[in-house]
Amino acid sequence: MQLALIQQSLTEEGLDGWLFFDHHVRDPLAYRVLGLSAPPAVSRRWYYLVPAAGEPRGLVHRIERSILDSLPGAKRAYSSWTEQVEGLARLLSGCRRVAMQYSPRCAIPYISMVDAGTVELVRSLGVEVASSANLIQYFEARWTPEKLQYHLEAGRRVDAIRAAAFGLIGDRLRAGAGITEFEVKQFVLERFREAGLVTDHGPIVAVNANASNPHYEPQSSTSLEIRRGDCVLLDMWAKLDTPEAVYYDITWTGCCGPQPPSQVENVFHVVRTARDRAIEFVGQAAAEQRALRGFEVDDAARAYIIEQGYGQYFTHRTGHSIGVEVHGAGANMDNFETHDERRVIPWTCFSIEPGIYLPEFGIRSEVNVFIDEEEARVTGEIQQQLVLI
After folding, report:
1. d(Cα 250, Cα 197) in Å, to the nearest integer?
2. Which residues have a Cβ under 8 Å from the Cβ of 296 and sit 6 or more positions away?
3. 142-388 and 3-140 share a CATH fold
4. What are 322-344's pLDDT values in tens digits?
């Protein structure tokens, strides 16, 4: 646990403390921020307060009283529910405003880990509960130089596998042999294993109308065959099979034939321009060292798609935070699914992936953008034209 940095951040946020709470390992963020190993089972509630100044302190059940032993500070034990409430009141003594993994109106679901009843309990003790969203981003979403190198290496490997997957489709079509979405998916997963990459699920290999489902994933029983003239979308994400490695996440689109249909080409150009406007907006903010918030990046991409008449077909946020989980806990590029007002802070990474999803086909173009104290940069290859398969 980075106690000094946590306390410095609490002071900057104007908070009296950060109250961590868990039951049945519902809050993985708490364990990661505290550097606490989650046991196989947590059947009783525990609380741990990191004050803005002074020594941390905890409250644990007598049956599981050792659960916080690796953390500094005194721990008081309880057994009954009345003793728990009294202990929590003592724990919070002197605090008027504390952060918890709570998001008002669940605006940021990635942060909203603490149940409503526990928030009510803390408030009933006369303590205001604030969102830990900014704190979580600082301690969870920021990369180290080592993580950046992990990401860049994963990107080189994933980009090569993406090119190989399109090449496989082309080879099969030229040979007159069939190939399905599911076969391409299995090809990518096998190449991931050979390249020392891991992923939580996926990839997405989607033909025509299937590409209009942003979370489509082919299964052996429902997979479509890829044929000449088809539009093919590949969305793949992976990281090195190394502790603390972070993800690389991209989407490319291609057409099976020497010339894409004019509507497909037009939609791709709209998506590409929206992507590039968002990239440019981020880059200018970084160069000017201007505060940048997630919703603004979404606005930069979405405004162009709306201007071109496709607004109703762009049905998700522009991008998401990227970390040890493919959807990380940092600021999302979102003024659509949520209004993410969090500042995009240095040493974080996120996707920019606008898409247009028509009934006949879908187009998405996804890149990863890393930002530090001086600049923002796309970390891998950037698709400029439809892949002609």
Report:
1. 14
2. 281, 285, 335
3. no
4. 999 999 999 999 999 999 999 99
